[in-house]
TrEMBL record:
<feature type="binding site">
    <location>
        <position position="210"/>
    </location>
    <ligand>
        <name>Zn(2+)</name>
    </ligand>
</feature>
<dbReference type="GO" id="GO:0008697">
    <property type="term" value="F:4-deoxy-L-threo-5-hexosulose-uronate ketol-isomerase activity"/>
</dbReference>
<dbReference type="InterPro" id="IPR027449">
    <property type="entry name" value="KduI_N"/>
</dbReference>
<dbReference type="Pfam" id="PF04962">
    <property type="entry name" value="KduI"/>
</dbReference>
<feature type="binding site">
    <location>
        <position position="203"/>
    </location>
    <ligand>
        <name>Zn(2+)</name>
    </ligand>
</feature>
<keyword id="KW-0862">Zinc</keyword>
<comment type="similarity">
    <text>Belongs to the KduI family.</text>
</comment>
<dbReference type="GO" id="GO:0042840">
    <property type="term" value="P:D-glucuronate catabolic process"/>
</dbReference>
<dbReference type="GO" id="GO:0019698">
    <property type="term" value="P:D-galacturonate catabolic process"/>
</dbReference>
<protein>
    <recommendedName>
        <fullName>4-deoxy-L-threo-5-hexosulose-uronate ketol-isomerase</fullName>
        <ecNumber>5.3.1.17</ecNumber>
    </recommendedName>
</protein>
<keyword id="KW-0413">Isomerase</keyword>
<feature type="binding site">
    <location>
        <position position="205"/>
    </location>
    <ligand>
        <name>Zn(2+)</name>
    </ligand>
</feature>
<dbReference type="GO" id="GO:0045490">
    <property type="term" value="P:pectin catabolic process"/>
</dbReference>
<dbReference type="InterPro" id="IPR011051">
    <property type="entry name" value="RmlC_Cupin_sf"/>
</dbReference>
<dbReference type="InterPro" id="IPR014710">
    <property type="entry name" value="RmlC-like_jellyroll"/>
</dbReference>
<comment type="function">
    <text>Catalyzes the isomerization of 5-dehydro-4-deoxy-D-glucuronate to 3-deoxy-D-glycero-2,5-hexodiulosonate.</text>
</comment>
<dbReference type="GO" id="GO:0008270">
    <property type="term" value="F:zinc ion binding"/>
</dbReference>
Length: 285
């Protein structure tokens, strides 16, 4: 499990491009046949990917979390970005098509991730790509029930305006009025054709760390992700299926060279979606 230590706002102005990428960007989240995890000391979040690629993967209890099993002291949200897969947890098997979100609460043991199989034991659909599970975990101090949200079942919000190139559909999955959790808030946003900004005005929420996993980004496109303090902005060029750690003091907004989608997930002081501090673009530097 890779560790990323917390950063102070004063460090960012002195970072070069590679320094910013090393601190905040996860370039390789999905590795076939592996579980890839990064522990960030910003709100002690663990995020990463699991790609079964025909095998059965177990969610590991790496030494960095000092636990007998991964969810002994944690909770996790899982979004499948590939073909249909299954997650077996606590003796129950959940089938997850692309876009489904699974919440697993503290104390859930024996988490196994796999591609879905047909009745004869082979791949459910060999013509389709295998499952790609995105994982977002935070410490938990009580237990909430495991819950699966299928595509289209979350709370849907239509936001933005095509005139400002940020018309988007926001799907809330794990949140205070939906699937309950201790800290994790999680969902998926899809930009409409012709829209490229994921949010504007840019904002911070000084009480929560947020992580973005960009996907459905064309191979020849990139997302320009804004970060840093509002008067000291920097940017990261982000490719398909790469993730960004956004500390609580950092703005997070982005614009793509084409439409795209992203998984957003947060953990910290509260779960209020509206708890954010916005900054007019005219005041940003």
């Amino acid at each position: 499990m890779e560790q990323r230590y917390a950063t102070h706002p004063d460090q960012v102005p002195g970072m070069d491009t590679q320094g910013l990428r090393d601190a905040f960007l996860l370039e390789q989240v999905f590795v076939p046949g592996e579980v890839t995890l990064v522990y960030t000391h910003h709100d002690r979040i663990v995020l990463g990917g699991a790609v079964p690629a025909g095998t059965v993967l177990t969610l590991p209890a790496d030494p960095e979390i000092r636990s007998e099993y991964f969810l002994e002291h944690r909770e996790v949200g899982i979004v499948n970005l590939g073909g249909t897969g299954t997650v077996t947890a606590g003796g129950e098997t959940f089938t997850m098509p692309k876009g489904a979100c699974l919440y697993l609460g503290r104390g859930t043991d024996g988490v196994e991730l796999a591609d879905a199989t047909s009745a004869d034991g082979g791949p459910e659909d060999a013509a389709q790509p295998g499952a790609q599970f995105y994982l977002f975990s935070a410490p938990a101090h009580t237990t909430y029930p495991n819950a699966l949200v299928l595509p289209g079942e979350g709370n849907r919000l239509e936001l933005g305006d095509p005139l400002t190139s940020n018309r988007r559909t926001l799907n809330q999955y794990v949140h205070e009025n939906g699937v309950r959790s201790c800290q994790v808030v999680m969902g998926v946003t899809e930009l409409h054709p012709g829209s490229m900004w994921n949010t504007m005005p840019a904002h911070t929420h000084d009480r929560r760390t947020e992580c973005y996993l960009y996907f459905d980004v064309p191979d020849d496109a990139r997302v320009v992700h804004l970060c840093g303090e509002p008067d000291q902005t920097r940017h990261l060029l982000v490719a398909d299926r790469q993730a960004v750690i956004s500390p609580s003091w950092s703005v997070h907004s982005g614009v793509g060279t084409a439409s795209y989608s992203f998984v957003w997930a947060m953990a910290g002081e509260n779960q209020a979606f509206s708890d954010m501090d916005t900054f007019p673009v005219t005041d940003m530097r």
